[in-house]
Amino acid sequence: MLSCQNIYYRYSRRAPWVLEDFSHDFAPGIHLIKGYSGCGKSTLLRILGGYLKQQKGKVNVDGYRKNNTKFKKQDLGFVFQQLNLLPLASVRRNLHLAASLAGVSRQTRNENVDKYLNRLGLQDFKKRLPKSMSGGQQQRATIARALIKEPKVLLLDEPTSGLDDLNTEVIIKVLKEFVDDGNRVAIICTHDSRLDPLADDILDFNRFLPMEGHLETLA
Amino acid sequence: MISSILTASYLWKDTWKRWLEQPGSILARSVVTIIMVSLSVLLLVGFRMQIEKLRFEVEKFGLDNLLVIETVTPKDIAQGIPADRFRSIKNWGNLFTAKKMIAYARSSNGKNASVVAYSDDDYRGLLPYLKYGHEVFVLTRSHPQGLVLDYDVDDQNFSCVALEPEEKISQLIQGDTLFIPISYIPQIANRGYSMIYYLERNPDSPKISELTDAIQLVIRADGNGKVDIKSAEAIKKRLNKLESQQTAMRLWLAAILGGAIALIYGVLSVLEFRQSMYVSALLKSFGVSRFMLGLRSIFENILIVNAVTIGLIYLLSLYHDTIFQALRVKATSDIDSLYWGQETYWIIAAANIGVLISSTPVFWALRKQVGSILE
To answer: Which residues on chain B are in Cβ contact (under 8 Å) with A108?
Structure first.
């Protein structure tokens, strides 16, 4: 479904490699990427989403070998770690804008907006501006926005960090439904062990790091 | 289509909010535009007025006319330099001659008039006035035609009739002018005078430039250089020179204006872009093109520049008389053509080009990867 081969990435020429010769295939299902802070989980996620360009290596998506823009528009849902909603647009407008840019038809868009807002428990918040919502509600809204175009690939960076169990439960339920048809892949960077039972595959990023050096960095 | 409308509407909302929250940035751009555009417009309008004035002079003077004014001093008269030495140019057209004396005529109401003396040879040019049967007459626009006035010239009293000057003779005299046969005031002629020759060239005569050359040849041969020659050709030469100078200045002005706007708007755009970078990156992550996001900066600046520029030009045209009177420049009446002509279109074009250039750093900054902005 989604694979990367021999990925190298560093933030500047003098910096050490964050990802060095990293390769992995992501089959349909839910994949968790776990590891210490700064081990390169989020970096990998952004590279997979095409939001960072790797210095070496390849990312392949089924059906999207070259046309990465189309992939980002139509078949990629991305949830950043920070609550990235358009601040001057209501939740409903945020969802509509993302769906219309993905080329979702008007009818499907209207249906999906209601469907995902309901699923994520946001039906009463659709006219609200992000600043008038709690962190958990905003997080659910960003997930709804990523799901509205019903992408093939969903990438989530710490989607449940700082969320209570109830909010986490809602998100877990929605993610399960998302991969239910067996044709979609969700990759989640997380420290949250509450998501572990959800995973079809857990990728431990710590094994790519020299443990001693990393612990020194943390210290 | 709907996505473009939604995106554009969001970007407009974001821009509007920024304008309301930070009026300083829009004010700074407006002030820069006001200063640069008003300076440029006033300079270009001033240039245009100069050119219009010269064109009017050419038109008024006529392309086939020649005016020669020779200053004759008492010394010249004593040395016997022929008083009417250029009179022979009458062979080339219709010649008007007269002697402007170094004297003033005082009227009973205290208003002075210049004195012009004429001889039998000058009769032909004065026929339109002499036909009324008065040898002494005053050409005036400040008295009703036909009014009889009294003037004193060197303690001699003259009763004369007031006549309105025709367009042609108006170019040769200034203010009220008393015309007297020279035989009535021979003593004044000895003090010196200006001999006026005004030629309306025949179509088959030599060109005005050739006539001018011939006159200058005579002057050099006689060794008397106190002669002024005025022709439309000379004015046209000045006009052409001025036009080419002004074309160059127009280009410089446009370049300076465009450059200043590009620089200042560019700096402000980059500063503002830093503030809106997050929203731009977010929209980019949804698939909004870099071009559309950059277009916001262009559109915003074009809106400000054109609203300020066009509004300012309109205001300047509205207060044209007041401004140019304050600058002690005679205002012309055809204001619309002065302000809404080629010159001002240059200004508007230069300002818009400046805006386009100013957006270059924004387009460059938009190349930054979304993943390095959003976290």
So the answer is: none
Minimum CA–CA partner of B289 in chain A: A69
In the sheet that holds A2-9, the strands lie side by side as A19-26, A2-9, A56-61
Q: Which of B14, B286, B372 sits opposite A52 (nearest CB)?
A: B372
Q: Bin B85: left if φ > 0, else alpha if -120 < ψ < 50, else beta.
A: alpha
In the prediction, which pLDDT does B225 show? 66
| Interchain CB distance below 8 Å, A87 and B279 | yes
The verdict on a CB contact (< 8 Å) between A86 and B372 is no
Give, as one character, the DSSP assignment of residue A39. Answer: S
Per-residue pLDDT at B292 exceeds 60 = yes
Confidence of residue A213 (pLDDT cuts 50, 70, 90): very low
Check CB contact under 8 Å for B374 and A80: yes
Q: Three-state DSSP class for A128? A: coil
Q: Which residue, among A215, A217, A193, has the nearest Cα to A34 in the 3D structure?
A: A193
Cβ contacts of A87 on chain B, cutoff 8 Å:
279
- The answer for A 73-92 residues in CB contact with B (under 8 A) is 73, 78, 80-82, 84, 86-89
| List of chain A residues whose C-beta atoms are within 8 Å of the C-beta of residue B288 | 101
Alpha-carbon Rg for chain B in angstroms: 33
Q: Going along chain B, which residue ranges are E strands?
A: 65-72, 93-107, 112-118, 137-139, 148-153, 156-163, 177-181, 193-201, 227-231
| CA B43 – CA B39 distance, rounded (Å) | 6
Nearest to B295 by CA among B252, B234, B359: B359
What's the whole-model pTM score?
A: 0.68
In tens, the pLDDT along B334-369 reads 777 777 877 788 888 888 998 899 888 889 888 888
Instruction: Encode pLDDT of B77-105 as tens digits.
Output: 887 766 677 878 888 888 888 889 988 89
Give the residue from B241, B238, B348 showing the smallest Cα distance to B302.
Answer: B348
Please report which confidence band the pLDDT of residue A215 belongs to, taking 50, 70 and 90 as the band edges.
Answer: very low
What are the tokens at B230? 């005025």
Distance CA A160, CA A167 (A): 8
